[in-house]
Amino acid sequence: MEPLTRTSNEILFEIAKKLPAKDVLNFSFTNRLLYTVCSQDWVWKHLCFRDHGVNFIGPDTTWKKFYYSKDINEVCRHLSAIDEKESLQQYYSVAHKCRIKECNVPNLWMCLAKGCSVVGCGRSGDQKGHAKQHYKMDREHGLVIQIRTLQIWCYICDKWIGIPKSRPAEKAKVNAIAGLICTNRPNLQMEVALNLQMEVALNFRRQRERDFEEEIPNDSKCVLVSKTWMTDWCSFMAGCPLPGPVDNRNLLLANGSVNPDISFPENFLIVSMNTWAYLEQHYGVDGRMLSEGASQILRYRCCVA
Ligand SMILES: [Zn+2]
Ligand SMILES: [Zn+2]
Ligand SMILES: [Zn+2]
């Protein structure tokens, strides 16, 4: 039998591709030749897809590092089936109108599945949900791009994909799709950015309305949001620049504890944990979450009344 060192590189690559990852790693410690073969980034790229179904990566990492990172289990692997160039063609080749003839809902989503590009309307409020219905007819068609913001939603993962809080690999892939659609179209790029800011703000407002409608149980936690940040946010709704991350530091003493003299609603407002999660995901947070039990919050409310 031929010793491994005399086997051609191609065959060694083929062998490496079929081994479990831990054996590829052990294989690479055997000798210099095997080290060279098993350290090739594309061997690890192959393993990332074979073992995790992920074929996209973020900046400043290698496929080998990515293979062993937590991130690989947290990204939406359904994005692996999406080709940026095809998404670009799909976006410009279909009419931006709901697939249901008589439906005139303006908030539209396009299916990103290969060769599909069906457009349907959203599902919140009084929209008709024709995009989700399309997914229900074919569960492989889980990824949709919002026409006016280029944001991506995955029905299978049931979440936003590539938002500020997502893993770098996922963000890079989504940015590549949106970036290609906007290439050489500075007006579209500006319009999309503005639509996106407005969409996030409106969702936040909807979420707050829900906080008021649904009674918060006594034992659940609520989160404080600085009035200063909320005022900035209200100014944004009136046409001023976008507020930065939620910043609650003006509610704290120098030692980091909550200032006992702050009061509701002069210094802070209250949101549910769900609303806070939304803020954290879409605006980001400077500092830490300040939470209190609902009964405590009710006490604040009573003080005001
Ligand atoms: Zn997904
Ligand atoms: Zn589809
Ligand atoms: Zn529709």
TrEMBL record:
Could you tell me which InterPro entries the record lists for this protein? Answer: DUSP-like_sf, F-box-like_dom_sf, F-box_dom, Pept_C19_DUSP, Znf_RING/FYVE/PHD, Znf_UBP
What protein is this chain from?
A: UBP-type domain-containing protein
Coiled-coil positions are none
Q: Which GO terms describe its molecular function?
A: cysteine-type deubiquitinase activity; zinc ion binding
One matching Pfam family: zf-UBP
Q: Which UniProt keywords apply?
A: Metal-binding, Zinc, Zinc-finger
Q: Which residues form the DUSP domain?
A: 192-302
Signal peptide location in the record? none
What SMART domains does the database record attribute to this sequence? ZnF_UBP (SM00290)
- Residues in F-box domain copies: 1-47
Domain named UBP-type: which ranges? 74-180
What Gene3D superfamilies would the database entry show? DUSP-like, Zinc/RING finger domain, C3HC4 (zinc finger)
